[in-house]
Amino acid sequence: MQFGRRRWFAVVATGAALTMGVASCSSPPASDTAFDTTELDSAINPCDDLYGMVNDTWLAETPIPDDESGYGVFNQLRDESLETQRGIAQDAAETLGSEDANSDRSKIGALYESAMDEKSIDAAGVAPLQPELARIDAIGSAADVATFLTEDAADGGSIVFGLTAGADYRDATKQIGFVAPTGISLPSKDYYSDPQYAPILDAYRSYLGTSLDLIGADAAQADQAVELEKALADASLSPEQARDPATQYNLVTVDQANATTPAFDWRQYLAAQGVSPDAGFSLAATPYFTRVNELLERAPVDQWKSYLRAQVVSRSAERLSKPFRDNQFAFDKQISGSTAQKPRWKTAVADVNTAMGEAMGELYVQEAFDPAAKDRAQQLVRHVLDALKVRIENVDWMSPETKQKALDKWSQLVPKIGYPDTWRDWSGLQISRGDYFGNLAAADKFNHAYDLAKIGKPSDRTQWAMTPQTVNAYYSPSDNTINFPAAILQAPFFDPNADDALNFGGIGSVIGHEATHGFDDQGSQFDGKGNNVNWWTPADSEQFAARTEKLVDQFDGYAPIPGRPDIHVNGNLTLGENIADLGGVNASYDALQAALDSDPGSAEEKIDGYTPGQRFFLNYARVWREKTRDEALITQLSSDPHAPSDLRVNGVVANVPGFGESFDCPPGSPLVHEGDERVVIW
Asked: N or C: which terminus of the chain carries fewer CB neighbours within 10 A?
């Protein structure tokens, strides 16, 4: 996780790409190299602990790299992707001047070259920030604070709040502006008030004090900055509350917005960013913006200036000289647990991705992804989606009326595989050799303008929110698409040399996971076109809530950190991901069974002593192997909607009948929930 300009967030993924396909179940090999069964811990009964049986040997033998907060399959694949990108960027830098300076490749080379020039970056010191700091020094009134926020936003900044484009919740065919809070920097609002996080808050205050000292300001201003941030945190949503779509949308006119914040002029704010002030936009989280207005009206101007200085330095720390980077890392490790900073080349590749991610993605696809993999992956997607449809059709707790609406939504689900059909145009971005800070600032402004240019235009379902080189996948409720970047389409998720069981247990479960998101507690509030509408009968909605509450209770009961029984998983925060995990495994397992049914006798044919059903679950457990530092796990539990990796295995398969059947688990086994204990949703 990163701190600063890139706000705190956590992801589920990891990657790199090559030629792929699904082997036939009709003639599996007697043994294979796609799954190394010697890694399995035979002393552990899978019915007691599937995750441990598959991963404990690996976990015991694998150290977490010093610069990582955790390490697992996702990290391994991400590192492979990063190495490929490093080669692309380094080659582009070494051959600068050999092609058009305005080509994407040349821009990537110039950007990477400037990012790797630590000597020049360190020599610049605080100089790149001086213009911004001078603007803050000149602030003399609350009106000047508002002007600074407006001007900063026009440059692509997002202090206190930020503007982005997105599909209108009421009419997903068109794009509108969304203004959302960005004023707090710690993982959640609890870090500012809960005594258990007091050491982190103290470390954050110290970090800001050193940041201010490095720019020649009084370090005591950190207290003022933190107090203002605490006031914003007090009015902020918790991560759990923010999962409710109702908290993320509130369509207003400029006059209505100005009535909420009389001390801040939204007309000027929108106009400064090239957005028509006459168009409606979403201003949700009203208590937060009411608090912003109170602070503009009542907080001392000097306190605002302290907060703004701290924010400007903090968001840019990774882009500044070594003292700033060291100071940031000293705080970051309090939350991540990592013990060393990342090598410079990883930072440089990350900068390229921040500035020109899709341009790097186009070069990555050309070098590392076989286009034929799209066709093969699409076949697997079709099998899993068909299995999900059958599960929806067979749901026994839903009325025919609601079930038809669910099937209508399923029929409009759009899978996207690998990379965009049309690549983005980067010709308007100016990148200069030797200007690291200036290049990233130009990219911030360019990318922000690109995003806001969508406002007022039709929504485009073909656009991606992730780059091809990202090892991840996602579902988008606003356009009802499931998206699988090229970098995740490789072993152990997707292996052309493996049997179907491994592929369905790996990428098949990921496909099912993303598709099920369309029917989790959040996705089920959107229809097939991406509109936030209620398509449920009251009785069916009550049934759904009762079933999901059982999953909440199950995960609430987990305390995953040894020696810390006081720290539990938040079942409500992780509900959507847990529903998706459960639905994804069920749908993909059904798809495997359908494939096996087409080849009589294949279900009992073993590879290395394991049946297809068993290998399905073995690979599902393998792809979630991960070793995590306690500091990072505490951060995850406080703010991340994903449960810890071991619980994404053991907590899920306990509710999957096929798991117990595959391993002949006796009744009463820890990972076999039966009767009312078993959670059944989709």
From this structure: N
CA distance 588 to 378: 14
CA dihedral 266, 271, 276, 277 (to 10 degrees): 30
Instruction: State whether the Cα torsion 353-357-360-364 is positive or negative.
Output: positive
407-431 burial by CB neighbour count: b if 16+ within 10 A, else e?
eebbeebebbbbbbeeebebeebeb
What sign does the dihedral 194-197-199-205 (CA atoms) show?
A: negative
- Asked whether the beta carbons of 417 and 374 are under 8 A apart, the reply is yes
Other CB atoms within a 10 A radius of the CB of residue 60 amount to 9
Retrieve residue 46's tokens. Answer: 């899978």
Domains, the chain, with CATH or none = 126-320 (1.10.1380.10), 384-413+491-627+634-677 (3.40.390.10)
Q: How far is residue 196 CA from its own chain's centroid?
A: 26
The order of strands in the sheet holding 161-167 is: 161-167, 175-181, 281-283, 251-252
- Of 465, 531, 457, 529, give the one whose Cα is nearest residue 176: 457
Question: CB neighbours of 338 closer than 8 A, spacing ≥ 6?
Answer: 66, 67, 68, 69, 332, 629
Is the pTM here over 0.90, yes or no? yes
Query: 199 φ, ψ to 5°?
Result: -60, -35
Tokens describing residue 263: 């001390």
Do the Cβ atoms of 494 and 20 come closer than 8 Å?
yes
Distances (CA, A) of 624 to 315, 573, 634, 639: 32, 20, 18, 19
Secondary element (H or E) of residue 593: helix 575-597
Listed residue (468, 470, 681) closest to 581, CA to CA? 681
Q: What is the DSSP letter of 40?
A: S
Scored b (16 or more CB within 10 A) or e, 646-663 reads bbbbbbbbbbbebbbebb
The two three-digit tokens of residue 440, written as one number:
């990233």
Cα-to-chain-centroid distance, residue 303: 33
Mean pLDDT, contiguous 10-residue spans, the chain (682 residues)? 26 26 37 86 97 98 98 97 98 94 96 98 98 98 98 98 98 98 98 97 98 97 98 98 98 98 98 94 98 98 98 98 98 97 98 98 96 86 98 97 98 97 97 97 98 98 97 98 97 91 97 98 98 98 98 98 95 98 98 93 89 98 98 97 98 98 97 96 96
DSSP 265: -
Give the residue carrying structure tokens 């079933």: 547
DSSP state of 458: B
Q: In the chain, helix, strand, coil percent, each to 5?
A: 55, 5, 40
Report the alpha-carbon distance of residue 553 to residue 117 in Å, rounded. 52
Count of CB atoms within 10 A of residue 587's CB? Answer: 29
Distance between the two ends of the chain, CA-based, in angstroms?
33
Q: What is the DSSP string of 534-587?
A: --S-HHHHHHHHHHHHHHHHHHHT---STT-TT----TTTTHHHHHHHHHHHHH
Distance CA 77, CA 621 (A): 16
Residues 675, 608: contact at Cβ < 8 Å?
no
Nearby residues of 600 by Cβ (< 8 Å), 6 or more positions away: none
Cα angle for residues 233, 234, 235 (degrees, 5° grid)? 90
